[in-house]
Design goal:
This protein has twelve helices and no strands. The protein is mainly α and 265 residues long. The protein is globular, with a radius of gyration of 18 Å.
Length: 265
Amino acid sequence: MNMILLAVILGVIEGLTEFIPVSSTGHLIIANNWLHFDGDFANLFAIVIQSGAIVAAMIYFREKIIPPLRHPERLKTYILLWLKVAIAIMPAVLLALTMEDIIDEVLFKPVVVAFALIIGAVLLIVSETHQKQVHTVTDKAITFKQALIVGVFQCLAIVFPGMSRSASTIIGGMWVGFDRKLSTEFSFLLAIPALCGASIYKLLKFEGDIAPTEWQMLGVGTLVSFVVAYFVIAFFMNYIRKHDMKLFAYYRIVLGIIVLAMFYL
């Protein structure tokens, strides 16, 4: 397959799945397996093109990204919010730094993804059905303890590719009493430093030479993921105001069963 076409396909998959609770990493692992795109560069590509989706999130949530320097009270709220985000990403950072090689070598497999998709779907359904009383509806009301707990939930996505970072953090948010909208927004904010950091770290750590055609692939995949992700974010934020997330859970179960059936049969 033409490498640019491959980058476009994978960029679309990344953009479609990064922010909805279905696991972009899981989808890319499955797609890479079917398209016979594997190896160290394939793993690097899957991480780096996430930066396009993150830029889309930064633009969409620019009011929470740009510090309100002319408004002292709002600036204080802004600083507190990003301190909570920093606390929330620390568990994932520590886990990723200590277990990255094991996860890449052992767990980046379609079967692992399939089981993680199904388990994550069950957790989503349970969270929606038995959500604790909602008592936090604005980011200003988030406590540091709540932020840390959500950050621990995010680690599920690192240990089990296919679990979904967004699903893990949304489930964690609902577990500690966030409403669905706040859980989703906080999940997006956590994604910005977490995935940007992962992309930069992967590029710096990559030991092989990146050929010009591979740089083109990275550029095209990142650009496509940015464009697609921006429209997906707008759709998803509107969707969750009116609907729960069980539809995504059912999709995960169906996909997980299909992948397991194809592998074992």
